[in-house]
C-alpha cells in the first residue's frame, strides 16, 4: 500500500483513529462510572448506617434491656426466698442479679448512646434503686439480725408494690425498645428500596452505554479489524502472495500498510531462515559428536596414562632398591619425589575416570534404600571411621529410584569429606536425616568439623577447585564435583547450608519415587528414633581420609575405587577454625 493509498483510506473513515475512538468511549464510561459510584456509595452508606443502627445498637440495646429485666426478677426472687427462710444461699440470685443489672445498663449506654429509650432506662434504674434502698436492703438486714419473723406482712406488701412499679418501668422500657426497632426496620426498608432503585437505574445506564459502545466500536473499529485479521490469517496460513489492504481508522490503515511491508520482509527472511536452520542443525550434530569424542578421549587418555605411570613408579623403586648403596641421600629424595608424583598422578587419573564414568556408564534405575547405600559406603570407609572414632547417626531415610553404584559413591564421598575435615581433638559426629517436601526428599548431612565459609559455597562444587594445600589435606579436588554430578543425574540438587556454622551441612534433594516400601518421613525430620551406625570391623578395603576406598561388591561396576575424597572443597581460613589453604 502506497502513502497515497493510506491517505485515501484515512479520508474514507475520518480523522479519528482507533485510539481516539477508545479514548472517547472510555471517557464516557468513566464519567458514567464516577456518577454511579457517587450515588451508589451514598445509598450504600445510608443503608449501612440504617442496618448498623438496627443490628449493633437497637437489637443489642433491646437484648440488654431484657437481660436487665431478668436480673431484677432474680433479685426479687432471691430477696423473697431469703426473707422466708433466712438462709444466706437464697441471696446469691440477688447479688448476681445486681451485678448483671449494672453490667447490662452500662452496655446499653455504650451501644446506643443516642436512643430515646435511654430515658426509660433511667426510670428503671431510679425505681429499682429506690426498691433496694427502702425495702430490699433493710429487709436483708432485719432478717440477718432477727430472723424471718422480723419481716412483717405490711412491709412485704410495701416491697411488692415498690417492685411492681419497677416491673411497669421495665415494660415501658421494652415497649420503647420495640418501637425503636420497628422504626429502624422501616428506615432500613426505605433505604433498601432506594438502594435497589438506584442500582437498577445505574445498571440500565450501563447496559445502554454498553449497547451504544458496542455499535460504535463494531462500525468504526471491529469491522475494519476483522478485515485486517482475515488478511493476516491468509498470510500466516502460507498465502504470502495475498496483498494486505484494509480500510478503517487512520491507525488501522497505517497498520495495514505496515503488515504489508512485514509480509514482504517475511517472504525474504523465510528463505534465509531455512538456510540458517539447516546450518544450525549441522552444527548441533557436529557439537554432539565432538562432545562424545571429547568424553571418550578423556576416558581413554586417563586409562592409557596409568600404565606409563606404573612403569615410572616401579622402575624408580627398582632403581632405588638395586642401587641403594650407590645413591646418596639427595638421589633417594629425588626418587621418592618421582614415585610420589607418579602415585598422585595415578590417584588423579582414577578420579578422572570415575568422574567421566558418571553419566556415561549408568546402571538401570532401580529402587535403592538410602540406609542400605550408606551402609555400603560405611563399609568402604571402615578404617577411616574406626581411626577417627567417628559417631555416625543415620535417621530413617527413604527409598529412591536410581543408580545404586552412584548413590554409594555419593555417600562415600560426603561421609569421607566429613571424616577428613574433622576438628583436631574433637570426636567427629555426623548426622544424616531426611524430610519430605513437595515432590522431593530433602536429605541433609551435618558434621561438627572445621566448617566452610559461606562465600565458598559455590566454588566447592567446581572440579579441581582445591581450597587447601595438599600438605594440609590430601586430595584431587574432584569429590564434591562428583557428588553434584551424581545428584544432578538423579534430577536433584545439592548445596551447602551457609546458615549452619557449627561445622558443615550439605543438603541434597532427590525426587520422591513411587516405591511401596518407602518410609513415610513427611512433615518433620526423619529419624525421630535414631540408629547409631557403628564403624564396621570388616567388609571392603578400608580407606584413610582423603584416599580411595575400594568398594565392596556392587559399589563400582569395574572394581574401580569410589573416592572418599570430597574435592578438598572446604575453605581457607586459620588452621583450627576453617578448612583452609595452608601456605
From TrEMBL:
Comp. bias regions, Basic and acidic residues: 560-583
Transmembrane segments: 20-44, 199-221
UniProt keyword list: Coiled coil, Kinase, Membrane, Phosphoprotein, Transferase, Transmembrane, Transmembrane helix, Two-component regulatory system
Annotated localization: Cell membrane
Any matching Pfam family: HATPase_c
Enzyme Commission number(s) from the entry: 2.7.13.3
GO molecular function, one term: phosphorelay sensor kinase activity
Domain HAMP stretches: 219-271
Keyword Coiled coil: yes
Catalytic reaction list: ATP + protein L-histidine = ADP + protein N-phospho-L-histidine
Recorded GO CC terms: plasma membrane
Boundaries of every Histidine kinase domain copy: 300-514
Keyword Coiled coil applies: yes
Region (Disordered): 515-583
Enzyme class per UniProt: transferase
Chain segments annotated as coiled-coil in the UniProt record: 270-297
Low complexity bias spans: 534-546
Protein name stated in the entry: histidine kinase
Organism encoding this protein: Streptosporangium sandarakinum
Amino acid at each position: 500500500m502506497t502513502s497515497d493509498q493510506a491517505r485515501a483510506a484515512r479520508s474514507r473513515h475520518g480523522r479519528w483513529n482507533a485510539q481516539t475512538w477508545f479514548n472517547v468511549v472510555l471517557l464516557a464510561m468513566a464519567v458514567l462510572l464516577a456518577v454511579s459510584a457517587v450515588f451508589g456509595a451514598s445509598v450504600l452508606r445510608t443503608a449501612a448506617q440504617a442496618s448498623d443502627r438496627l443490628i449493633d445498637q437497637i437489637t443489642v440495646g433491646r437484648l440488654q434491656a431484657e437481660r436487665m429485666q431478668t436480673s431484677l426478677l432474680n433479685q426479687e426472687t432471691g430477696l423473697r426466698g431469703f426473707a422466708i427462710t433466712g438462709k444466706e444461699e437464697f441471696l446469691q440470685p440477688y447479688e448476681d442479679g445486681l451485678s448483671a443489672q449494672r453490667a447490662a445498663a452500662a452496655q446499653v449506654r455504650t451501644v446506643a448512646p443516642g436512643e430515646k429509650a435511654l430515658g426509660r432506662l433511667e426510670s428503671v434504674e431510679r425505681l429499682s434503686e429506690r426498691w433496694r434502698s427502702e425495702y430490699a436492703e433493710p429487709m436483708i438486714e432485719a432478717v440477718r439480725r432477727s430472723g424471718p419473723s422480723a419481716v412483717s406482712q405490711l412491709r412485704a406488701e410495701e416491697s411488692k408494690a415498690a417492685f411492681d412499679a419497677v416491673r411497669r418501668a421495665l415494660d415501658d422500657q421494652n415497649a420503647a425498645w420495640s418501637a425503636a426497632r420497628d422504626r429502624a426496620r422501616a428506615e432500613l426498608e426505605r433505604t433498601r428500596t432506594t438502594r435497589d432503585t438506584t442500582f437498577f437505574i445505574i445498571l440500565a445506564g450501563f447496559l445502554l452505554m454498553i449497547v451504544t459502545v458496542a455499535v460504535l466500536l463494531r462500525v468504526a473499529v471491529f469491522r475494519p479489524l476483522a478485515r485486517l485479521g482475515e488478511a493476516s490469517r491468509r498470510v500466516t496460513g502460507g498465502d504470502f502472495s495475498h496483498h494486505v489492504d484494509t480500510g478503517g481508522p487512520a491507525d488501522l490503515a497505517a497498520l495495514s500498510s505496515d503488515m504489508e511491508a512485514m509480509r514482504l520482509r517475511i517472504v525474504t527472511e523465510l528463505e534465509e531462515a531455512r538456510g540458517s536452520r539447516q546450518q544450525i542443525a549441522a552444527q548441533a550434530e557436529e557439537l554432539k559428536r565432538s562432545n562424545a569424542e571429547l568424553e571418550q578421549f578423556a576416558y581413554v587418555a586417563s586409562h592409557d596414562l596409568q600404565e606409563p605411570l606404573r612403569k615410572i613408579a616401579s622402575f624408580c623403586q627398582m632403581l632405588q632398591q638395586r642401587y641403594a648403596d650407590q645413591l646418596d641421600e639427595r638421589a633417594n629424595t629425588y626418587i621418592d619425589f618421582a614415585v610420589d608424583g607418579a602415585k598422585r598422578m595415578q590417584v588423579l587419573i582414577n578420579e578422572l575416570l570415575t568422574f567421566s564414568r558418571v553419566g556415561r556408564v549408568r546402571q538401570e534405575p532401580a529402587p535403592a534404600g538410602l540406609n542400605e547405600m550408606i551402609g555400603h559406603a560405611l563399609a568402604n570407609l571402615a578404617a577411616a571411621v574406626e581411626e577417627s572414632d567417628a559417631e555416625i547417626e543415620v535417621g530413617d531415610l527413604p527409598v529412591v529410584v536410581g543408580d545404586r553404584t552412584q548413590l554409594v559413591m555419593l555417600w562415600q564421598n560426603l561421609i569421607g569429606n566429613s571424616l577428613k575435615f574433622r576438628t583436631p581433638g574433637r570426636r567427629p559426629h555426623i548426622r544424616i536425616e531426611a524430610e519430605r517436601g513437595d515432590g522431593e526428599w530433602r536429605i541433609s548431612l551435618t558434621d561438627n568439623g572445621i566448617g566452610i565459609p559461606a562465600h565458598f559455597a559455590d566454588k566447592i562444587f567446581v572440579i579441581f577447585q582445591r581450597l587447601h594445600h595438599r600438605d594440609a589435606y590430601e586430595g584431587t579436588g574432584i569429590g564434591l564435583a562428583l557428588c553434584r554430578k551424581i545428584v544432578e543425574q538423579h534430577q536433584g540438587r545439592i548445596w551447602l547450608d551457609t546458615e549452619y556454622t557449627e561445622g558443615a551441612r550439605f543438603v541434597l534433594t532427590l525426587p520422591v519415587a513411587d516405591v511401596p516400601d518407602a518410609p513415610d518421613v513427611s512433615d518433620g525430620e526423619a529419624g525421630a528414633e535414631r540408629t547409631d551406625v557403628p564403624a564396621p570391623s570388616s567388609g571392603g578395603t578400608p580407606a584413610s581420609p582423603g584416599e580411595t576406598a575400594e568398594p565392596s561388591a556392587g559399589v563400582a561396576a569395574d572394581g574401580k575405587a569410589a573416592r572418599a575424597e570430597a574435592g578438598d572443597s572446604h575453605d581457607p581460613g586459620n588452621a583450627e577454625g576453617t578448612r583452609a589453604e595452608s601456605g
